[in-house]
Amino acid sequence: MWKKFKDSYFFYSFKRDPVAVVSFIVFVILIILSISAPFIAPYNPYDTTGIDIMDSELPPSWLQGGEKRFFLGTDTQGRDLLSTMLYGLRVSVVIGCGAVILQAVIGILIGLVSGYTGGRIDAFLMRMADVQLSFSTLMVAIFISAIFQLAFGVGRYEDMAVPLLVVVIGLSEWPQYARTVRASVLGEKKKEYVEAARIIGLPSFHIMRKHILPNSMSPVLVISTVQIANAVMSEAALSFLGLGMPVTKPSLGSLINAGFEYIFSGLWWITFFPGLVLVIFVVVVNLLGDWLRDVLNPKLYKG
Questions:
Q1: Which CATH number does the domain housing residue 150 bear?
Q2: Could you report the per-residue pLDDT of 27-61, keeping only the tens digit for each?
Q3: Is residue 71 part of a domain?
Q4: pTM for the whole thing?
Q5: How many domains does the chain have?
Q6: Domain of 251, in residue numbers
Q7: pLDDT tens, 83-93?
Q8: Would residue 30 count as lying in a domain?
Q9: Quick check: is 199 in a domain?
Q10: What biological processes does GO assign it (predicted)?
Q11: Which string of DSSP letters, residue by residue, matches the chain?
């Protein structure tokens, strides 16, 4: 299988695109850092016994007043910023990937049913998608997060922050998948292999799952890469507004929020470094998504 992959047009195109190669390497490094945070982070930001408030607001080690044990400095709670960023990156990646999986499942299912059945079902499902798209993703996420905090309290919200954000962001973005999959299904269901499957008496669900869906996955892969970046940005925006991850459970967004009010008082590193990691992650994911879109669409690819 590996030999077949190395000889494929996909891998050949990837090798010839330096931007895609560099973006993929940076993306893999960030994912490895996020996964291995508990093993490589100098400190555990969740361990309150190892945090000293007297160490708060220390600058990076190479600046005056910094200490060698805190390479990127500390935040306002006295936590090592490097360790907190690694754990925060892991939280942001988990939320981003989880939200994309949820919105993909919902969107693909709705898009398949809508495109294949047509008629009133198609009209109803697409009107639902249109209503969802008429509201911004951030507005829907803010609305749901605010209701949950009012209904269950801030303490309960902190315990359920990660799964809740996955659900909130996932429910906000499913129309992107639904409309894309529906468009692909409308083109595929008129082809001969689908007609042949109907003639031999295969059930509709089997035709959608085994025949139409595999041939409609190319645009889904492209959307998924872009949506991961969007989901991470949505989490960061919600955390920045105080409706995402709490300060006690760091994510890139909550770290940016925690340091933003101090940025003009000289504590620039608390916001700058998490913001830099967030920008790098979003940029490399978007670059990979653009390359993948071009490769899967031969009319656009010029490699």
A1: 1.10.3720.10
A2: 899 889 888 888 888 888 877 777 777 777 788 88
A3: yes
A4: 0.81
A5: 1
A6: 60-296
A7: 888 888 888 88
A8: no
A9: yes
A10: transmembrane transport
A11: -HHHHHTSHHHHHHHT-HHHHHHHHHHHHHHHHHHTHHHH-SS-TT-GGG--GGGTTPPPTTSTT--TT-TT-B-TTS-BHHHHHHHHHHHHHHHHHHHHHHHHHHHHHHHHHHHHH-HHHHHHHHHHHHHHHHS-HHHHHHHHHHHHHHHHHHHHHHHTHHHHHHHHHHHHHHHHHHHHHHHHHHHHTTSHHHHHHHHTT--HHHHIIIIITGGGHHHHHHHHHHHHHHHHHHHHHHHHTTSSS-TTS--HHHHHHHHHTTGGGT-THHHHHHHHHHHHHHHHHHHHHHHHHHHH-TTT---
